[in-house]
Amino acid sequence: MALFSFLFTGSCLRELLSKTGLEDHYENKLTLSTVLEINADTTSDEPLTTMQSLPGAFLKKLMMANVNARSVKCLTTDQEVSYCGVDNMDTDTDSKNVINPLDLITALFLCSDSFLQQEMVQKMSTCQFAVPLLLPNCDTKQSTLMLWALRDIVRKFNPSSQTSTQAFVEERIVLSDIPMVSFVRLGEIRVSKSQILNKLLSNPPQYHDTFVHDDMECGDVPRQISDGLVEISWYFPCGNRNIDMFTKPVAVANLRGDIRSFETQFSFLCQTSAAVYIFIDDFEADLKVLEGKITKTELFLVVNSQKKTFRVDTLNKIITNYSINPTNVIAKKKKNDVEFVKTLQSSVGDIIEQSKNRLTIENMADVAHQFEILVDEDRGECQSARKMADEITRNITDTIQFKDKQLPLQGQIWKELSQLEKERCRLRKGGEQNIEHYKSSLKRKEEELRKKQHKCDMSGAMTSFILGMSRSGPERSYFLKWMRINLDNLSRQNLSALRDQYKIFCQHSPEKKDDIKHLDKQLSDCSLGLEHFLRELGQLYEASCSLPKSRLQRKQMEHLPGLCAQMLLDGFPVELVDGDASNIPLKWISAVLTQLHTLVQSNSKIRVVTVLGVQSTGKSTLLNTMFGVQFAVSSGRCTRGAFMLLVKVHKELKEELKCDFIMIIDTEGLKSPELSQLDDSYEHDNELATLVIGLSDVTIINMAMENSTEMKDILQIVVHAFIRMKEVGKKPICHFVHQNVSDMSAHDNNMRDRKKLLEQLDEMTQAAARMEKKENITKFTDVMKYDPDTSSRYIPGLWHGTPPMAPVNPGYSEAVYSFKKTLMKDFRKCQINYDLTHFLKWTQSLWEAVKFEKFIFSFRNSLVADAYSRLCTEYNGLEWAFQKNMYSWMVCAETKISNIGMTDQHPQRSIRCVLNELMMEASEKLSEGEKEIQDNLVKYFEKQDGHVNLVEKYKEDFVSSAKTLRRETENTVRNKLQGAVEIKEGMKELNNIQSSQASTMEKKVLDLLHKCRQNQSVLSDKALSEEFENMWKKTLSEIHFKELPRRDVAQDAILTLSRNLSTRGGQVNKMLVGNNLVECGKKEFVVETGGFGEKCGGLFKHWDINHYRNKLQELCDNIITQCQLFITQKVENKTDYHDTYIKELLNKIDETLEQHKNVKISEECESSLKLHICGRAAREFQKMHNDFIEVNDPRKSLEQSKNKYLTEFRDMFDNQDQCLKKAEEFTKLLQPAVRDYVTKMIGPDVVDEVKTGKGSKDYSTRGAFQFSILKQLLTDGQYEKYEKYIYNYKSFVKDWLFDQIVQQLSKDCSLEKLENKHISEIVKTITDTISNIRKETGTTNVNDVKTFIQNICRALEEKLVLKDALDSILILNTSDTKQFAVYLTELVEEMKQSLAAKYNKIGDVKERLRSLPFKPQDEMFTRLFGCGEQCPFCGVPCEAGGITHATHHASIHRSEGVHSYRWTSSSKLVIEICSSLVVSDASFSNAETGGTFHPYKDYQKYYRHWMITGDSSIEASDYWKYVMATFNKRIADAKHALPADIPGDWKALTPDDALKSLMKSFNMK
Ligand SMILES: Nc1nc2c(ncn2[C@@H]2O[C@H](COP(=O)(O)OP(=O)(O)OP(=O)(O)O)[C@@H](O)[C@H]2O)c(=O)[nH]1
Ligand SMILES: [Mg+2]
Ligand SMILES: [Zn+2]
Ligand SMILES: [Zn+2]
Questions:
Q1: For position 59, what pLDDT does the model report?
Q2: pLDDT tens per residue, range 366-402
């Protein structure tokens, strides 16, 4: 039925296209990139159910070189079930759902653009499928010669029958004049022509379906559009007489359809073929078509003599009519084809030998034009592109010369530049030279080389190349293809032989090292490909980057990266690592990728797959098969460096795979050890492997099974790379691919091998770990997740049979397909994904790290630095939240303790009980807080963004910092609360005395009042006073006043001190005994000389002789200042003295000394320091104590309140209302408590304010803080400031920070605002409390102000210290609480105003900050100052985060002369920088090493806790170079040394350079 319908719709082409879903593409051609796009079907194995899915399925298989591609068909249910039975006899295969493969192929070719066509032909030819030579269009009746499509086929064969197997030649088929024989039919025939041809072309045991024939899947489906198609295929000999059917190559063309209907094609074939074989059964037919065809070709008639209609006489007639050579008749005589095929073969063999008509396919174009056959290359764009390409390549005769002349930048200059770049990191050849001078000389050389590059004018070839690259769309693609084809043709002549030789040498005589080396060099010298032109583009660009931005020459190059980006986007591979120079042109690659990122509107998330393996093990082939791409494949050393290529991901899959593109990186084969010794390529291989493994999400390790030593070598390199990646926190997914496995059950058989592989891996891991100094790694599984069963893949050999006639092994293609599915699954599993900008950063980072001899990936790396500073910021936030929380809790707790006994709530509960409860509560709160930090840290590391993997190894630092923080806070809390309790206890006696006195007096006053009232008499004021006076005197005489005990503070102190020093030696004891504490600390504390300096004499370099002494003095001074501050604070509080004060002081000293363990302090010095401080403290505390006793003398204080009692007494007698008065009194007492409250609360707020305000970034991490100091110093540009920063680092930082805080708070009255905020808050609390209490008591209307006040106090017990206040209010009568509350509310409001006004007036922010109990400046200082460690060489402070960390590090190190290091011999300042020294071969010697010399490289032997990393860029240390150069003389003068010899380029540095380097080093934008 269906057949009918197209007959009537007119166009069976349209019909078929719409059936197969290709309709739209007839106009709008399918492109290669859409076909290669990864979509849902890429790895789906769903059965095909619609005709529309067939073209896709065919292409998918074809692109993977699957020889079964042509058998794609729909799976229909009825076909499955009803395969037999009488009923099914006449149901024809449903023509609706089937299509002849030829139709499918024809349709696809008609709907594809030229690039896809070319690729399809390429893959078909690899599968040994016949490919279209003339493509018919049954609609327009036009045929097209597929010259362009065939242009890329390159085949290799052995034309000589002499058995020397080396005579392989490689040829581009369209250019070689292989004789062609054509096979056509006239009328219907009984034999299958195509099947006969297949047999003709197959080597006997390996029959292969080159041409589609009836007996294939769907081959019997009637063809609808492919009649008129001429297919072509080739036979190539392999050089083995026993196998080869023909000894020379031959092309076989096959015309589909009856020649009578396709006369044009037939005529074309007759003009181009050496012979045309006409299959004919029906001699009655009209044979006019044969007329006049035997001009160029020989005609053969192939007849079937078995047929009943066969007549010899008719045949003879034909022969004479058409003047066919009578010998040119071949008859099929038997049923069996064998003999028939043999006859044909020998006939064809003869033709090959004698034929004169040899036409290359390229030359067939002319014939095509004669017959009005279109030629696909005639397209305008293609022709113009070809012209451009030819122009460039035409003149190349000598590749080496051409490269020299036309591509000069990449030659020797670029190689030297690359070496310089590495030498800058490795400093191997510096010799005896001073390192910084050496580095400067390297920089000079680099500049010279760049200058040399600038001098080269752009060559003619490059100008034309850029012109070609700048063409739009398809024309550029044509141009690039033409370039590639032309260059390939050129180097084929030069290289094929070399490659073969190379391969043979490598395989058979690896001992001939010199020959191999020579060949290798020749290979790289002679090769000239597209990549060389792109390299030159890169160098043009890079060289221009070193010019000033405004230069025209630079501007002209700015568009180049865009061109290359476009190329990548079009699916061309681009070189990432230049294998010859062994370097990445980073500026160029960066620019290209950045451009690309812009081109795709930032949708540039990528997944990266790479392949690694030994040379020529089919790595490129594997990738090409897997993704349908076109990396260069050839025998012999072929891929150099690493190439990247992008494959698009369809939008339906972007979400799932989390990427927009897949980047495939093909790498140069690693060399076997024998080969690598030749030219140190081991290093190159190692670098390459580290880089690509580092870059990839999935790494494929390709191994050829047959060679186990080779396998070992590559694994060794790979293991190194993995260990390094572990350092970086990257866990790449990795697959080991064993290729060339002959047996499909290999997986099982190789069980033992796999175990052995793992053993070997373990062994190599250990060896590699030793070399990388990572001894804790012992097993391969420590390095990466590896499961011997699933991490290995087995892929059978590529060819099915003997090349060149072997098709691709279907097993190979299937295995690769199944592998691809695994990869897709891997991608889905991968978590995070980043875009190209990130890939770029990674590339830069890894490459930087690789350039060092030891792979260094540390804080100098911007990614790590960034991740680390994020982590620090995160942790600092958590830490601060914890501290703030604990502080406010502690303030409450302290207040509570002070208020104990105030309201007599639990009179029986002892203070100690309260303390225990509070400590328990504290402990709970602390645990909660600690847990929160830990949980948040875990969460942070789980989040996976911000590159947490890079800083995974520092996680432990922060986890333990949180623990330390908790422990330290717990100690502080305990000390504080205990202190508060002890003070409280100390006051107990005084309080008791006072309250008993008060209650006695109260009773007496009330008695007197009672008495006076009873007398009824109206007493005058005077009389009343007299009565009171009498009573007062009498009472005082009755009270037994106890003096407060007076203590000897010095004695207390010396006791505490000797307990503190009890573990020290006898000398110390003597000091304690012999010293009168009262006399201590009166003079300046001076560290005694002696014991310092002598040890350091006569060294290579040495500290200033007084260095140690000065350091110690500085430390002691610091401690003294700190303690003095503490003492002053206590004294200002005007409380009584308590033992804990001295204890606290000593704790403070011990803590500080502990923090500065590196400054060695003798026991004697420690003791005298403590004596000094305790002496001072004892004196001041004694005075405070005396004052306290004075002020609080019971008798005196009672007498002081005499007036109060009197007024009270009078008022009561007069029955005056006391509401207002009491309210006033109470308010007056509230005021100091409120002020106290505000003072306590404000500290943390100030920290918050500074941390979140403008400039907050400076305080986010220690690094950022250092940065802002150094930046400020640079701006100020004063040596004095630098000097203070360097020599009095701590106090400098302290002052600096304080100034910053003060500055910030002075702006916009920030401090006042904070204060007012807190006043408002507390006043609101008070008024709320008042109204609440009123509400509660309102109904009962308690007429008792005293209770009312007590209730208020109780409610505020956690906020305000009111105990004393309460004691001093006398309330003897009762009055209306309602009225009292009203007054009180008003008064409190007034108090708020007056306090606020006062705050606004006090101007000195500095003073106010200093007086806070929680000092924001100290708090911030402690956090920002960090561990306080300084670099053992240059003294730069550590920037590591957290409280505790395993290693110290700093962003930039200083020139050591800045720290007054000098040469012993010349007294000249030293300019060396630690970060250069640690990678150089220099040695150091100091007290630590006991005067012996020790290599800087191994500095960790002595400074285990320091991490000093090499500095790859010259610029990184520019800051200190600038400082050193600028202040050279000042430093020398100040430190009594001679100025250093400063390298010339240091002197040229400007403040701007210094700033830039600072920003870069601290990773600031
Ligand atoms: N016999 C055989 N040949 C293969 C196999 N795989 C690839 N080849 C051939 O080996 C040659 C080298 O393949 P490539 O893919 O270029 O190898 P490569 O590993 O990329 O080579 P380099 O990049 O130069 O290290 C090509 O001619 C392939 O056709 C295989 O499994 N068996
Ligand atoms: Mg390769
Ligand atoms: Zn240093
Ligand atoms: Zn540190």
A1: 95
A2: 999 999 999 999 999 999 999 999 999 998 888 888 9
* Ligand 1 atom closest to the CA of 795, numbered from 1: 31
* Shortest-distance atom of ligand 1 to CA 667: 23
Q: Is 134 in the pocket of ligand 1 (CB under 6 A)?
A: no
pTM of the model: 0.79
pLDDT category of residue 7 using cuts at 50, 70 and 90: very low
Mutate to test the pocket of ligand 1, among 620, 640, 692, 793 (most ligand atoms within 8 A of CB): 620
Residue 1213 near ligand 1, beta carbon < 6 Å: no
Bridge-based pairing of strands 1462-1463 and 1101-1102 is antiparallel
Instruction: Label residue 701 exposed, middle or buried (CB < 10 Å: 0-12, 13-18, 19+).
Output: buried
Residues 6+ apart with CB under 8 A from 53: 21, 41, 74
Average pLDDT value for the chain:
84
Give yes or no for residue 798 CB within 6 A of ligand 1. yes
Is 637 touching ligand 1 by the criterion CB < 6 Å? yes
**Length reported for the chain:** 1565
- Cα(460)–Cα(1435) distance, rounded to whole angstroms? 56
Name the E strands within 1343-1408: none
Question: Is ligand 1 within 6 A of the CB of residue 618?
Answer: yes
Question: Distance (Å, rounded) from C-alpha 1541 to C-alpha 1525?
Answer: 9
Instruction: Please answer whether residues 219 and 213 qualify as being in contact, where contact means their C-beta atoms are separated by less than 8 angstroms.
Output: yes
- The number of the ligand 1 atom at minimal distance from the alpha carbon of 632 is 16
- Report d(CA 687, CA 719) in Å as an integer: 12
Q: How far is the CA of 615 from the centre of ligand 1 (A)?
A: 8
Number of continuous H segments (helices) and E segments (strands) in the chain: 61, 22
Task: Identify the helix (H) or strand (E) that includes residue 648.
Answer: strand 642-648
Residues paired with residue 374 on neighbouring β-strands, in sequence order: 144
User: 125, 127, 154, 616: which to mutate for ligand 1, most atoms within 8 A of CB?
Assistant: 616
pLDDT in tens, 138-148: 989 999 999 99
User: What one-character-per-residue DSSP string does 167-221 give?
Assistant: --EEEEGGGS---EEEEEEES--SS-HHHHHHHHHS-TT-----S--TTSTTTTS
Per the structure block, which two tokens stand in for 1181? 């505390």
**Crossing angle between the packed helical segments 862-898 and 911-943, to the nearest 10 degrees:** 160
3-state secondary structure of 299: strand
3-state secondary structure of 1149: helix
Atom of ligand 1 nearest to the CA of 739: 31
How far, in Å, are 292, 885, 1136, 1235, 1315 from residue 1412 at the CA level?
116, 18, 20, 11, 12
CA–CA separation, 274 and 826 (whole Å)? 54
* Half-sphere CA count of 1164, side-chain side, radius 13 A: 8
